[in-house]
Amino acid sequence: MRSKYTYDESGVTFFYYALTVLSLVVAPATVYMLFGKKNSDAGAKPKTPKVRARIPKKKSATPNLKLGLILAGWALIFLLSYKVKTTEVMEAKMWDPYEILGIDNGEKEETITRAYRKLSLKWHPDKVGKDLKEKAGEMMAEINRAHKTLTNAEARENYEKYGNPDGMQTQSMGIALPKLLVEAHTSPFVLALYGLVFGFIMPFYVGRWWYNSTRYQKDHILNPTMSTFFKNIREHISQRNLIELLTAASEFAEDDLKYRPADEAALKALVEKIRRVSQIYANDMFSAPKKFTGKDVWKANILLHAHFFRVKIDDGELADQQQQVVMTALTLVHRGLLQISTTHNWYTCSTLLMNISQMLVQGVYCYDAPLIQLPGITWENQPKIFKEKNLYSNHQLMRMTAGEQRKALSLLNDKQFEEAIQVAKTIPRLEIARVLLTVVGDKAITPASIVTLIVKVRIANAPNKIVPRGKGVAVADIEDISDEDTAAIESFVADFGKREKETKQTPPEAYCPYFAGRKDSQWWLSFANYQSGKLVVPPVRISDLVSERVVVLQFQAPPQKETYRFHLSIKSDSYIGNDVMQEVQMTVVDRSTLPSEPAIVDDISEPEEDSIAAQMAQLRGQQAGARRADDESSDED
């Protein structure tokens, strides 16, 4: 069968094609523009006051261009939809001789002839008026053709096989493109368009996507950065060396952060200020990294230490780059260095990285007093307050009476004092309410058993003490369950996953005036072996602690029978001086100390003698006896 292709002259089918393609592009683009980009923790708009803020970037024309293209796309969609609705579609009608003669399919030849004669009398040109002669001629031609098709054996067979009495015909196929696109005078423009789209635009965007995807890890960290971290991080590494390793990230060598010769004078002046402050207040002389000596590393190191020592940067562009370096460094600590350290179960290294996270958020050095996080407390007056009033931490300040607080902060004026007290009230004071180590269902911990660690923590100064316990679920408080109540513990652990999903809450924003972005207050829970100094389980990040929270972890008990000591620590990722630690002991005993399992009573009674089961059992016994006798006789032979 030959095929004949026809192009869409009226544009009917092309409207459907264009509407489909355009909808597949515009609809996903609209959804992505509205809901695809969510603000990150550091990128969201902060609500707390800021000493340092990033310079607002000039609005790019790209979002407006995207919005314009999307609006134009929707306008075209509505226009094409209107065209599709109002354009009449001419459907091809199949030629049917039975329908022409007005009879049912499969009628006999007598009925066909009778219908033919009747229609011939009606539509014969000599039987109609002059105004119907043309139509009558067309109708008689169709009537004669239909009659011949149904009375001639060959014509009827062709119709039944191919749908046409003349036999196989050329198949006509429509293409949803206007003929204009394939005409000779337009072909150069069409070819040029195809070449532009498939030879340049598509390869360019696919290549750029592939290049960016191969440059970054899944956590959007450059591959060379992760390679540098993997090669140089060690279990026993100092905090100073960790900061130097952090500044060796390739992110700080990108175009917007890399070293420029024009920055040399400002960086040298900044180094002198940092050295002077570090020598006076930190007893630590700032110096260049020894292992990583690149200019980009040195610039990032200077900007980070200027942040730690709260040294003001006069150059506006350099100050903005500093905030970008701080935000990037925080991401690299959380998603890069800390992941590597926890994968190796390095407790000390992980703890130092958590300390660096606190330093980045608060803009403090590792030896600073927690009191310096309050407004009005500076490098100059904090040592005097500590020396004269013996005041070091925020929690120590909040335990004082109002009169003692004013006396201790006498170096501040009334306005500064009120601000400092208000902020001190919002800084969370964490406490561990309950720690339980148990094997679910057993009253003792045996070698290699699966141990469940249940920890309940609470914010002692939380403004809201009411904590949802779940929807329609009667939930017991772990503080009310005794260590020996194995049934209640098992029920608590079984219901924990359901309650955890139902009680998610939004954490409060951390007060961090020297961190330009928004930072929510979050915590790390670490559980480490005291003897080996290794993490028993990877640290758990608690991102929804508002008033209280229960954390459930599981790990395998050691194979030896003895008493083990563990460090349970909970560290803030935003505040210094808020960490809590508790020593936990676990005794592994022999399995023989567990109560014996109850004997399984077999309640299956013997079948009665006259039952079918008894007869079958007796028959099996006789057959077994006969087989044993045959075996014995064969052995004797």
In short:
By secondary structure, the chain is an alpha+beta fold. The protein has helices spanning 12-36, 61-86, 97-101, 109-123, 133-151, 153-162, 187-215, 223-232, 239-247, 264-282, 295-308, 316-343, 347-362, 381-389, 394-398, 402-408, 414-426, 486-502, 612-636, and strands at 3-7, 171-175, 430-438, 450-459, 523-529, 535-542, 548-556, 563-572, 580-587. The longest helix has 29 residues, at 187-215.
Give the SSE map.
Layout: E1 3-7, H1 12-36, H2 61-86, H3 97-101, H4 109-123, H5 133-151, H6 153-162, E2 171-175, H7 187-215, H8 223-232, H9 239-247, H10 264-282, H11 295-308, H12 316-343, H13 347-362, H14 381-389, H15 394-398, H16 402-408, H17 414-426, E3 430-438, E4 450-459, H18 486-502, E5 523-529, E6 535-542, E7 548-556, E8 563-572, E9 580-587, H19 612-636
Helix pairs in contact: 1-2, 4-5, 5-6, 10-11, 11-12, 12-13
Structural summary, described in words:
The radius of gyration is 42 Å and the shape is elongated. Helix 1 (12-36) runs antiparallel to helix 2 and helix 12 (316-343) packs antiparallel against helix 13. By secondary structure, the protein is an alpha+beta fold. It has 19 helices and 9 strands. The chain has helices at residues 12-36, 61-86, 97-101, 109-123, 133-151, 153-162, 187-215, 223-232, 239-247, 264-282, 295-308, 316-343, 347-362, 381-389, 394-398, 402-408, 414-426, 486-502, 612-636; strands at 3-7, 171-175, 430-438, 450-459, 523-529, 535-542, 548-556, 563-572, 580-587. The strands form 3 sheets. A 4-stranded antiparallel beta sheet has the order 6-5-8-9, with helices on one face. Residues 468-475 and 631-637 have low confidence and may be disordered.
